[in-house]
Structure formats: structure tokens, C-alpha cells
Write a structure and sequence with these properties.
Order of helices and strands: HHEHEEEEEEEEE
Low-confidence stretches: none
Largest sheet: 10 strands, mixed
């Protein structure tokens, strides 16, 4: 062995992976992880449901305001509704979430069909009137998102925990 074949740091011959089977190593690592640290069934189900909801044609409405994070708390106020604002392109969705349900408005005002998502299926179907107003009597429990279908586009909000 000459000096050209040695690693400068440790004085060892560098590893050459011409004969190394990467696919076999990956499979063995997957098997070890499945035995030693398996993915919880609930997490696997949620991942499959989230992927099933993936809509390539939908625009994602980004959360731009959340009263739990961005608002200044008012002293003595209890059971304050959670205010959310989502924005994408020229559409803004304002939503108020309470223990009694949710209500909101689309800006600019327009009619739309709205689905409250809690998994691969809609938990509730709503309709926004010509002023863009909508309401649901059932509070969204757990993670939820809204899918809006306007005349021009399909918009899905970010997922949030109620």
C-alpha cells in the first residue's frame, strides 16, 4: 500500500463501494426499524389519509393569522373564539372557531362550496352565500382543514388542530 491509497485524516484506505449492495442494506435497516421502533398504527393511518387528500389541482391557502399565536390576550376574557385567516392569491378566508362550531367569510365575497375536512372524507359540507359567509354548527374536533370550491378554483387551507 502506498501513500496515495491512504486517507489523509486516519491513515486508512478509503472505502470503495463498487461491490456494496445498497438495496440490501436499506432493506435490513427497514426491517430493524420495523422491529425496534415500529410506526404507530394511528400515525400510519393519518399519513395514508393525508396522502389520499392530496389534490394536485388545489391551491394551498397559507395561515397568515392565528389568534392563539398572533393576538394579544385580553385580561379576564374566557372562551374567546379562535380567529384564523388564510390567504392564497386573491382569496382570503377568515374563520372563527368556537365550541359551538365555526363561521367564516370569503374575501372578496363570493359563493362557494366548502368542506370541513377531518381525514379523507368531509366531516361537513357547507355553502358560502353571495356575501362569502358560511357557518357550521359542529365544532371541528382534532386536525381539520377547509376545501373551498369557487367558480374559478379549488383551495385547501393548511391543516390545524382545533
Amino acid at each position: 500500500m502506498n501513500d496515495d491509497d491512504q486517507d489523509d485524516i486516519f491513515g486508512e484506505v478509503p472505502f470503495v463501494d463498487e461491490e456494496f449492495d445498497h438495496d440490501r442494506l436499506e432493506e435490513e435497516l427497514r426491517q430493524a426499524a420495523a422491529i425496534l421502533d415500529p410506526v404507530p398504527a394511528e400515525l400510519r393511518r393519518a399519513a395514508i389519509e393525508a396522502y389520499a387528500l392530496h389534490d394536485l389541482d388545489a391551491r394551498i391557502a397559507e395561515l397568515t393569522f392565528d389568534s392563539l399565536v398572533d393576538a394579544i390576550p385580553v385580561r379576564g376574557a374566557v372562551d374567546v373564539p379562535r380567529m384564523l385567516t388564510f390567504h392564497t392569491g386573491g382569496l382570503t378566508v377568515d374563520v372563527e372557531v368556537t365550541d359551538e362550531g365555526l363561521m367564516g367569510q370569503l374575501l372578496p365575497p363570493q359563493s362557494a362550496s366548502i368542506e370541513v375536512l377531518r381525514g379523507p372524507r368531509a366531516a361537513a359540507s357547507l355553502t358560502a352565500d353571495d356575501m362569502g359567509r358560511f357557518a357550521c354548527d359542529t365544532p371541528p374536533g382534532g386536525p381539520f382543514a377547509l376545501r373551498l370550491r369557487t367558480d374559478a378554483e379549488v383551495v385547501v387551507t393548511e391543516w390545524l388542530r382545533a
